[in-house]
Known about the structure:
single chain; alpha+beta; T-fold; 8-stranded antiparallel β-sheet; 10 helices; 34% helix; 24% strand; globular
Amino acid sequence: xxxxxxxxxxxxxxxxxxxxxxxxxxxxxxxxxxxxxxxxxxxxxxxxxxxxxxxxxxxxxxxxxxxxxxxxxxxxxxxxxxxxxxxxxxxxxxxxxxxxxxxxxxxxxxxxxxxxxxxxxxxxxxxxxxxxxxxxxxxxxxxxxxxxxxxxxxxxxxxxxxxxxxxxxxxxxxxxxxxxxxxxxxxxxxxxxxxxxxxxxxxxxxxxxxxxxxxxxxxxxxxxxxxxxxxxxxxxxxxxxxxxxxxxxxxxxxxxxxxxxxxxxxxxxxxxxxxxxxxxxxxxxxxxxxxxxxxxxxxxxxxxxxxxxxxxxxxxxxxxxxxxxxxxxxxxxxxxxxxx
Length: 340
């Protein structure tokens, strides 16, 4: 309940869709999906048209949440069970496409983005709606790291049968599904005749068109203080994604452990508080904004920009474990304000 309240608070105050005066033709609706607060804003349409479009988007979000849920009964859980048994399993064309796409992203990130480490995520207790402080058995962590579950261990054939040469692979698309939802939302809104919208899934945001005569203006939450870290204008088709240690985490013996696991060590990354990326317009902008923030978060201070550039991301901002803020040159050109 605390995580849900905090997510709602963060959405309303820090991940801003600044909507100006109340007389503007702006329709906004909130929901709770993917374990976080969701907001869809539509500009320039009648309430009736906007309401119908938002309903279609939220219905899609609910569907994707069920399809890609890693620890509740559904297609992904069934696939993971089959992999553990060493069996081939037929999946939907959608899930097969996601596996292929996520494999490409994982390879481009040198394995720092790795949805195949579901067992490690579960071992740390993050495949739950609430997180309890716990210290997993170091030997179990080490065994999973030695097993090296990777996306390239999976094979997807032409009939969408999936198999794995590594039975320790367990898929968790927590760092991918929200981005896919953003891309699908844009397609749905355009099909509904909506030209201007902003979709926000717990800080993963994509823009469609403009907010009237100006671009959509958004803020990125500071990971530790009640303020915006930066504000920037989002152009049509651009998306931002943030990985942070401030929503899905627990504290034990004075140490904060977040849900972002370094596949190389099996332990949560601790040298970053937040990492936000800006993805250029394209059919996969949402997915890229979601997936790319993980390698940037995990990579160390000398490598984070290079890790993002391998995925085609130039604009990013990072807050390290001490609270020091660093921005790429491309993000510095876009940021409206920085608060230390």
